[in-house]
Amino acid sequence: MIQIKSLYKSFEDRTVLNDINFTFENGKTNLIIGQSGSGKTVLMKCLVGLLTPENGEVLYDGRNLITMGKKEKKALRREMGMIFQSAALFDSLSVLENVMFPLDMFSNMTYRERIKRAEFCLDRVNLIDAKNKFPGEISGGMQKRVAIARAIALQPQYLFCDEPNSGLDPKTSLVIDELIHDITTEYNMTTVINTHDMNSVLGIGDSILYIYQGHKEWEGTKNEVFTATNQRLNDFIFASDLLKKVKTEGEKENR
Ligand SMILES: Nc1ncnc2c1ncn2[C@@H]1O[C@H](COP(=O)(O)OP(=O)(O)OP(=O)(O)O)[C@@H](O)[C@H]1O
To answer: Using CA atoms, how far apart are residues 230 and 234, in angstroms rounded to an integer?
Structure first.
């Protein structure tokens, strides 16, 4: 579980995050949604320690990231897995070597153990057959699955995904969403996903934080999105053709 309390972040005299309070829960896919420029990325960066907020607390199961020492921070970083917008794989390394990379860097495992663990993770994302291929030889969706395998290699407690579906077609996005959701429950991780994708909101929004101009405008679950009365959330949802359709149909059924 990650709790943020009274989080403030500004750049020069411009407040970008304003008094955000939220709990990202274990075993759940926690989504941060909001318009472009609302502060999602800045929030994610504050969560992982790439930016330091002026005020507030970021508590990793009670451990405050803002005040902890360097050593503790380093140890905590090893409990975090990250998936970036681009899969960010090393082109010159094979799929297997890419997944082994964090193990090579941060574990005390023997070479044999590292191979075994990397193969296990590749198997989990259904890519064991592609282990000897290079990133340039596989599709964008497969690259994302390699990135997921790499992110879980060190068995993280906390998983951060920045726009995991960017650049993917809707069907492949669904596969990636389901995979992230499944591994989150399976390993009881606290997963935080930054997304614009309304399919993701509907599909895997176990817990949703909607940010509007740097403040928490609404929180709830995918099931509550349909019945929410928050006007700004509704405007945001209605900007998506998909949800416009689903919500209108839902309202018809309730009549
Ligand atoms: N390093 C920085 N210096 C100054 N302003 C910044 C910096 N990083 C972000 N901002 C500003 O903070 C605001 C929030 O940006 P952020 O990137 O978090 O938005 P976002 O919700 O992630 O948008 P998008 O969905 O387009 O990625 C924006 O107005 C942005 O210009």
So the answer is: 6
With a CB cutoff of 8 Å and minimum separation 6, the contacts of 72 are 63
Question: Is the CB of residue 250 below 6 angstroms from any atom belonging to ligand 1?
Answer: no
Same-domain status, 53 and 174: yes
pLDDT digits (tens, 9 = 90+) for 101-148: 999 998 899 999 999 999 999 988 888 999 999 999 998 889 988 999
Residues 75, 35 share a domain:
yes
Range of the domain at 147: 92-155
pLDDT the model gives residue 166? 84
Ligand 1 mutation target, pool 40, 52, 85, 216, most atoms within 8 A of CB:
40
Q: Are residues 69 and 104 in the same domain?
A: no
The single-letter code of the amino acid at 106 is: F
CA of 193 to the centre of ligand 1 (A): 16
Same-domain check for residues 66 and 119: no
Burial 32-42 (b: 16+ CB within 10 A, else e): bbbbeebbbbb
Same domain, 55 and 105: no
Record the pTM. Answer: 0.89
Residue 247 in domain:
no
pLDDT attached to residue 255: 61
How many independent structural domains does the chain possess? 2
pLDDT by residue (tens digit) across 45-82?
999 999 999 999 999 999 999 999 999 999 999 899 98
